[in-house]
């Protein structure tokens, strides 16, 4: 290897710097120094360095700075210049400009918020992502999730909810799951043509899907699709709609005969649609006057007893059985729309339950009691279900009875 001959000439981008060698005695020892010389704005500039490699780096950097017109960096003095030079030397292997490195450093410190050093965070990320994750599309992952839900014997309602939400998501995200970002999820939810509460339900299922993917190893630990995504409210927005006694009479008279118990339970007991769909006749005690909503059939997974009003007993008695489903229809929403259409009424979403709760409170003036019967909190009853009505109208509501059959009599002569 040839020894360097001094003075050395370093040229970058048409600008030249010279490196000279100098000796200096210090405490009886001869020390070598290297002087970098270049012209800065017509004046000679000298920088002393004890290492030749560092001196060459300083010379190249000075030439580049002069060529780019960046004179301020070269006019730094003493400690500032030394710090700048060291920073440039440290960054040289990765070819990152010093201003970009500083910006990235500050951003990383702000994100960590003092909870860990940047190096610690990087080591943790590499550790968690060292193993290559299996690639899977949203459609394939959704199918696996639904099969798992069936194996785990999730309720029919839960399986249906997973199927509806995940299939819709798969139609909109024809990609692999690891490519999905929170901003995409946010835009997807915002664009759904649904009410606020329905968007909240979709958001909750997507969060469950996300956690399932992490547990199955399809997403890195710590992945959160819902980070920064709007948390939609479950509070009912707008006016709470109920039926009048006359409207309910029309619904009951025009509905399919086998669908009458469904309407009566919703209107006079305030049960949820899903609870009625799961209800069995053996859970209705007409003699003692109670309906048992088992924990595995309730939305809140809490068992409760609902009183049977005298008029509800009259509506249910003709259809009563020892056992079997109360409602034989799979698509209850279709039957609800059909009954409203035949009665010449506008279908009002969840209005049977709204009506039952509103009239029941007007009748007994006891919101906590009705909240317990309905399986909701007092606050939710007030915000989502209650529409104030007069006690006289409530009395009319709970006096609606099934029509009596006319008995024909022959004249005996």
General description of the model:
By secondary structure, the protein is α+β, with helices and mostly antiparallel strands. The chain has three domains: 8-95, GCC-box Binding Domain (2-Layer Sandwich), CATH 3.30.730; 138-215, DNA polymerase, domain 1, CATH 1.10.150; 245-397, Orthogonal Bundle (hpI Integrase, Chain A). The chain is built from 17 helices and seven strands. It has helices at residues 52-68, 78-91, 98-112, 118-128, 138-151, 156-172, 182-190, 196-215, 245-254, 260-268, 273-278, 310-316, 332-342, 351-364, 367-374, 378-385, 391-397, and strands at 8-12, 15-26, 29-40, 43-49, 284-285, 290-293, 304-307. A hairpin with a 2-residue loop joins strand 2 (15-26) and strand 3. Helix 10 packs antiparallel against helix 12 (310-316), helix 10 (260-268) crosses helix 14 (351-364) and helix 14 (351-364) runs antiparallel to helix 15 (367-374). The radius of gyration is 39 Å and the shape is rod-shaped.
Task: Summarize this structure briefly.
The chain is an alpha+beta fold. It is built from 17 helices and seven strands.
CATH architectural group of the largest domain: Orthogonal Bundle
- Which CATH C-level class of the largest domain is it? Mainly Alpha
Q: Given the structure, what is the number of helices? A: 17
Write the element-wise H/E pattern from the N-terminal end onward. EEEEHHHHHHHHHHHEEEHHHHHH
CATH topology of the largest domain, anyone?
hpI Integrase, Chain A
First-residue to last-residue Cα separation = 141 Å
What is the CATH superfamily of the largest domain? Intergrase catalytic core
- Number of spatially distinct domains: 3
The overall average pLDDT, rounded, is 86
Kindly state the number of beta strands. Answer: 7
Contiguous low-pLDDT stretches (5 residues minimum) are: 407-413
- Radius of gyration from the alpha-carbon trace, in angstroms: 39 Å
Biggest sheet: strands, sense, closure? 4 strands, antiparallel
